[in-house]
TrEMBL record:
<keyword id="KW-0031">Aminopeptidase</keyword>
<feature type="binding site">
    <location>
        <position position="207"/>
    </location>
    <ligand>
        <name>a divalent metal cation 2</name>
    </ligand>
</feature>
<feature type="binding site">
    <location>
        <position position="111"/>
    </location>
    <ligand>
        <name>a divalent metal cation 2</name>
    </ligand>
</feature>
<dbReference type="InterPro" id="IPR002467">
    <property type="entry name" value="Pept_M24A_MAP1"/>
</dbReference>
<keyword id="KW-0645">Protease</keyword>
<dbReference type="InterPro" id="IPR036005">
    <property type="entry name" value="Creatinase/aminopeptidase-like"/>
</dbReference>
<keyword id="KW-0378">Hydrolase</keyword>
<feature type="binding site">
    <location>
        <position position="238"/>
    </location>
    <ligand>
        <name>a divalent metal cation 2</name>
    </ligand>
</feature>
<feature type="binding site">
    <location>
        <position position="100"/>
    </location>
    <ligand>
        <name>a divalent metal cation 1</name>
    </ligand>
</feature>
<dbReference type="GO" id="GO:0004177">
    <property type="term" value="F:aminopeptidase activity"/>
</dbReference>
<feature type="binding site">
    <location>
        <position position="174"/>
    </location>
    <ligand>
        <name>a divalent metal cation 2</name>
    </ligand>
</feature>
<feature type="binding site">
    <location>
        <position position="111"/>
    </location>
    <ligand>
        <name>a divalent metal cation 1</name>
    </ligand>
</feature>
<comment type="function">
    <text>Removes the N-terminal methionine from nascent proteins. The N-terminal methionine is often cleaved when the second residue in the primary sequence is small and uncharged (Met-Ala-, Cys, Gly, Pro, Ser, Thr, or Val). Requires deformylation of the N(alpha)-formylated initiator methionine before it can be hydrolyzed.</text>
</comment>
<feature type="region of interest" description="Disordered">
    <location>
        <begin position="251"/>
        <end position="273"/>
    </location>
</feature>
<feature type="binding site">
    <location>
        <position position="181"/>
    </location>
    <ligand>
        <name>substrate</name>
    </ligand>
</feature>
<dbReference type="InterPro" id="IPR001714">
    <property type="entry name" value="Pept_M24_MAP"/>
</dbReference>
<keyword id="KW-0479">Metal-binding</keyword>
Length: 273
């Protein structure tokens, strides 16, 4: 069942979304060579506790994974792209880090992710991150009232192909609102003009993620961390978006992020330029 949200409810989700954006920006600003992933996780926990926000990841137990998830961040490094478990690992110069977080405040959820390079950035890593961000903006632009769900998927897939990347469709975007995962599922490739009608009040998480040289994935033994099957680099970008009468409204913009340039001011981790 798909629940359309009222303008007031979207406003409450926007409150949560702003907080998610702020936390992601702060965590990314702390991601420097030598910093341990567990320290980033603890920092985020402190920010959630101070705000009174509830992690949507904590105790999450889908069909995959081994036991409930017991962290507030997904931290995926280099060839890991989704659901990376924070663990005892000190970031190294040149690491590509994807940060993903979903929380609820006063019962309303927002979910967002983005990727940065820690320290010295290789051009091919910046290009990969850029591709996910361009695809995300294309997907957002396609989320127009009266359009179709396939318009979003097709826009993301077209960007992937323009950059020379293939698309894995096993995991993608999703509805969001009172819980982290609601209907509908939003593949990262598809056909424009197909699928459900996009109605004002629909709230969705759009999340392109790409692998450099493959569209195949594998799971770590922890049952959570998803990696490229061939060990190639990966990147992931995501925003929570509301379809409104006047067009898409992004609820999780980061305070230091300019979507026109991709720049993130004051962040040690580098994004695509």
């Amino acid at each position: 069942m798909i629940e359309l949200k009222s303008p007031a409810e979207i406003g409450l989700m926007h409150v949560t979304g702003r907080f998610v954006g702020e936390v992601l920006a702060e965590v990314a600003a702390s991601a420097a060579p030598g910093v341990n992933l567990l320290d980033l996780e603890q920092h985020a926990r402190g920010l959630l506790e101070k705000r009174g926000a509830e992690s949507s990841y904590w105790d999450y137990a889908p069909s995959f994974g081994r036991g409930p998830f017991r962290n507030v961040l997904c931290l995926s490094v280099n060839d890991a792209v989704l659901h990376g478990l924070p663990h005892d690992y000190a970031l190294r110069d040149g690491d590509l880090l994807s940060i993903d977080m979903a929380v609820a405040i006063d019962g309303w959820t927002a979910d967002s992710a983005y990727s940065v390079v820690v320290g010295t950035a290789a051009p091919e890593d910046l290009r990969l991150i850029e591709a996910t961000e361009v695809a995300l903006e294309a997907g957002i632009e396609a989320a127009q009232p009266g359009g179709r769900l396939g318009d979003i998927s097709a826009a993301i897939g077209a960007v992937a192909r323009d950059y020379g990347y293939r698309v894995n469709s096993e995991f993608g975007g999703h509805g969001i609102g009172r819980t982290m995962h609601e209907s509908p599922h939003i593949p990262n490739d598809g056909r424009a003009g197909r699928g459900m009608r996009l109605m004002p009040g629909l709230t969705i998480a759009i999340e392109p993620w790409f692998l450099v040289t493959t569209d195949k994935i594998r799971f770590d033994e922890d049952g959570w961390t998803i990696r490229s099957a061939d060990g190639s680099r990966t990147a992931h970008s995501e925003h929570t978006v509301a379809v409104t009468e006047t067009g898409p409204l992004v609820l999780t913009r980061r305070p230091d992020h300019d979507p026109a340039t991709g720049d993130a001011a004051g962040t040690p981790g580098q994004q695509a330029r």
